[in-house]
């Protein structure tokens, strides 16, 4: 009988990974892929060692250096003395446990959520976890992926499973077509602003509709990346021919007979006709404009043609209190037009927007123009592979000629734990995912935006609608 | 190891929405500290000036709240990063229960993996607690995990949600890995089946 009940994509993948039902919405879920980086893993390895548990499936585990690494051109393991031991410890833990490591100096090295799709490790229908909240990124390929804490990292290392409460499903259908100059980043920022930063709590999200179908894989990865900023651990786009074209031939993707086998499974993953999510939302994207955040939560966002809102107009007291605190931190007055806000830094990078197509969008905006006086602008490719591809195309010359720094791959100015930071009181237009207080450095003020908006703002020295500068 | 099932203590109010894990512990404190010394990092930028002197107005710096065991905060508490150090910072400070209208999902899981009770109350319940705690004198609250209720000093009760399995794990203080490994045979059987039905998911090797 259950065959005839239409299922959401999420339910198909979840049910296919249930090792055991534990009652009360809880299941023991099998993990197909475990990605690691140097920040969340150290104590997990120490824990299982102390408790005497071996790593169950080192062969399904991959580590990379990204969070604490330097992005300097001449970097090495000791470039940042305060964090060099964490680079070494990941090397030691990987070697001791026979885990594959994409380390500093390797062509495969890069931000964990950039590397996983690029190498063909994240696949449609697989479960993938990592001790990082932006693991939802690779849901853009149709993987069921989510971020976990250190205790859960230890649990996966020891058992290759997690005890999880089954999330409810939410489908966000994006109808219409994005205008020129409007990207996946603008779309997801708008969704977060419209639904709220906690709308996704307890949900696994599926992004659907014509605007999502039209996105290339890198755009889908950007879209899913900010699911956690919507409150959801998991966000997905159903796989389609765009997905299969992207994955075919990637180093760790299945090949030959296994590819054919996988493809047949992937083609049945989409939500069934007639399946209904626990919560359905729809958004018309045709009139969507480039977005810019003005506060310290990604939900505090508006169209770039607008102005800083007045907390006095907030719908309730809790929201007003949050807005007031955000404006105080950001040093902004209600009514100030976004495009009149001067900036000090531009950061193009992070697991949100550091892939080749993001660099294309930024470079196209720049052309042969220069970064405005007084602005420090940098481009940090998401992986060493992206960097190499960009250089093969000559994109780095556009950035360097304009006055951008062209750096090595890593999390860089998104996480504020390597040498790349925004100085106190300075204002940064950033393609990353979090505008939290002090996120990019103590006292740093962050405005989240798309690569095109970030590049346009670098050229003018204030927040700028990229459509103004189209050449 | 059984845990206390009724958590009583002074409650501190930090009544902002969207308190993220970067606020709970800045990333630079995530690397070198050891348990149980993460307390110095809790709310670091809200508790301390850049010269490390205390910001007097912040609630946890006021003498009546230094031994707070319960924190009451706005919706979406613990949103953002998966850093479990946010929970360690709360726990090492002495907080054993956080009451809020909603929590970030990853943070919520991390709490229970460290014996910290995250108690979601209704918006009305949160408004009631704000009203009580804004009177600015210390109040003792009591969260009963078994009854799924928070008791106010006047005896008033507010319900909070917690799943049965989570409550059992919390009360019993079970080691999650040991509990899962009682299903080791199920895991092995699953892997055998997966090797046939999804063989490409059970393999991860480079073609190059």
Q: What are the key terms here?
A:
heterodimer; A: 471 residues; alpha/beta; five-stranded parallel beta sheet; 15 helices; 19 strands; globular; B: 208 residues; seven-stranded mixed beta sheet; 8 helices; 7 strands
What does this entry look like structurally?
The complex is a heterodimer of chains A (about 475) and B (about 210). Chain A is an alpha/beta fold and about 475 residues long. Chain A contains 15 helices and 19 strands. In chain A, the strands form five sheets. A five-stranded parallel beta sheet of chain A has the order 5-4-3-6-7, sandwiched between helices. A five-stranded parallel beta sheet of chain A has the order 17-16-15-18-19, with helices on one face. Chain A has a four-stranded parallel beta sheet with strand order 11-10-9-12. In chain A, α3 (about 85-95) links the parallel β4 (about 60-65) and β5 (about 100). The mean pLDDT of chain A is about 95. Chain B is an alpha/beta fold. A seven-stranded mixed beta sheet of chain B has the order 4-3-2-1-5-6-7. The mean pLDDT of chain B is about 95. The chains are: A alpha/beta (about 475), B alpha/beta (about 210).
Identify the most extensive interface between protein chains: A-B, 83 and 63 residues
The strand line-up of the biggest sheet of chain B is 4-3-2-1-5-6-7
User: What does the oligomeric state look like here?
Assistant: heterodimer
Percentage of residues in DSSP E strands of chain A: 15-25%
Let me know the average pLDDT of chain B. 95
* Low-pLDDT runs of chain B: none
Number of strands of chain B: 7
Terminal Cα separation of chain A, in Å? 59 Å
What profile does the largest beta sheet of chain B have?
7 strands, mixed
Query: What composes the largest sheet of chain A?
Result: 5 strands, parallel
Question: Helix coverage percent of residues of chain B?
Answer: 25-40%
Task: Determine the N-to-C terminus distance of chain B.
Answer: 50 Å
Helix and strand composition category of chain B: alpha/beta
Given helix and strand content, the structural type of chain A is alpha/beta
- Rg estimate of chain B, integer Å: 20 Å
Q: What is the number of strand segments of chain A?
A: 19
């Amino acid at each position: 009988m259950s065959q005839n009940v239409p299922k959401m994509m999420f339910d198909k993948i979840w049910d296919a990974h249930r090792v055991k039902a534990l009652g009360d919405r809880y299941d023991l879920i099998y993990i197909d892929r475990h990605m690691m980086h140097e920040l969340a893993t150290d104590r997990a390895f120490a824990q299982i060692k102390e408790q005497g548990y071996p790593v169950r499936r080192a062969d399904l585990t991959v580590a990379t250096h990204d969070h604490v690494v330097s992005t300097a051109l001449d970097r090495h393991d000791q470039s940042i003395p305060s964090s060099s031991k964490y680079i070494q410890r990941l090397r030691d833990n990987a070697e001791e446990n026979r885990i594959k490591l994409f380390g500093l100096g390797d062509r495969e090295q890069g931000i964990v959520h950039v590397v996983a799709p690029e190498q063909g490790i994240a696949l449609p229908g697989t479960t993938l976890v990592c001790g990082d909240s932006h693991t939802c990124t690779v849901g853009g390929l149709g993987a069921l992926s989510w971020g976990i804490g250190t205790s859960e990292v230890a649990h996966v290392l020891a058992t290759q499973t997690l005890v999880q409460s089954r999330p409810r499903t939410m489908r966000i259908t994006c109808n219409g077509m994005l205008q020129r100059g409007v990207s996946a980043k603008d779309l997801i920022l708008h969704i977060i602003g419209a639904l709220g930063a906690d709308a996704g709590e307890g949900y696994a999200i599926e992004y659907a509709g014509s605007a999502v179908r039209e996105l290339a894989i890198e755009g889908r990865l950007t879209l899913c990346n900010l699911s956690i900023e919507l409150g959801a651990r998991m966000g997905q786009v159903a796989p389609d021919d765009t997905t299969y074209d992207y994955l075919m031939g990637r180093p760790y993707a299945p090949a030959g007979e296994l590819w054919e086998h996988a493809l047949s499974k992937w083609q049945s993953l989409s939500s069934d006709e007639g399946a209904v999510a626990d919560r359905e939302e729809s958004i018309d994207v045709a009139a969507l404009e480039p977005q810019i955040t003005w506060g310290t939560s990604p939900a505090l966002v508006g169209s770039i043609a607008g102005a800083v809102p007045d907390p006095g107009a907030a719908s309730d007291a809790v929201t007003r209190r949050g807005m007031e605190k955000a404006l105080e931190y950001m040093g902004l007055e209600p009514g100030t037009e976004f495009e009149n806000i001067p900036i000090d830094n531009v950061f193009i990078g992070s697991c949100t927007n550091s892939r080749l197509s993001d660099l294309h969008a930024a470079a196209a905006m720049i052309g042969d123009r220069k970064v405005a006086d007084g602005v420090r602008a940098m481009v940090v490719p998401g992986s060493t592979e992206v960097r190499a591809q960009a250089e093969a195309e000559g994109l780095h010359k556009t950035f360097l000629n304009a006055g951008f720094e062209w750096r090595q791959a890593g999390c860089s100015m998104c996480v504020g734990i390597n040498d790349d930071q925004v100085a106190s009181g300075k204002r940064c237009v950033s393609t990353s995912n979090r505008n939290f207080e002090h996120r990019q450095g103590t006292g740093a003020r962050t405005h989240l935006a798309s690569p095109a908006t970030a590049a346009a703002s670098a050229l003018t020295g204030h927040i700028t609608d990229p459509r103004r500068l189209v050449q | 190891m059984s845990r206390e099932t009724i958590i009583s203590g002074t409650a501190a109010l930090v009544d902002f929405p969207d308190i993220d894990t970067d606020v709970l512990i800045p990333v630079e404190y995530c690397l070198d500290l050891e348990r149980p010394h993460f307390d110095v990092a809790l709310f670091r930028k809200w508790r301390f000036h850049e010269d490390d002197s205390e910001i007097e107005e912040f609630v946890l710096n006021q003498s009546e709240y230094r031994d707070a065991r319960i924190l009451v905060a706005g919706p979406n508490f613990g949103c953002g990063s998966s850093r479990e150090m946010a929970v360690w910072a709360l726990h090492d400070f002495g907080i054993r229960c956080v009451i809020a209208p909603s929590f970030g999902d990853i943070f919520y899981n991390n709490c229970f993996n460290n014996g910290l009770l995250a108690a979601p109350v209704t918006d009305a319940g949160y408004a009631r607690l704000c009203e009580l705690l804004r009177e600015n004198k210390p109040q003792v609250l009591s969260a009963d995990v078994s009854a799924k209720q928070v008791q106010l000093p006047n005896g008033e009760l507010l319900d909070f949600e917690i799943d049965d399995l989570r409550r059992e794990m919390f009360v019993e203080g079970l080691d999650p890995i040991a509990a899962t490994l009682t299903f080791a045979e199920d895991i092995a059987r699953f892997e055998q089946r997966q090797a046939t039905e999804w063989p490409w998911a059970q393999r991860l090797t480079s073609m190059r």
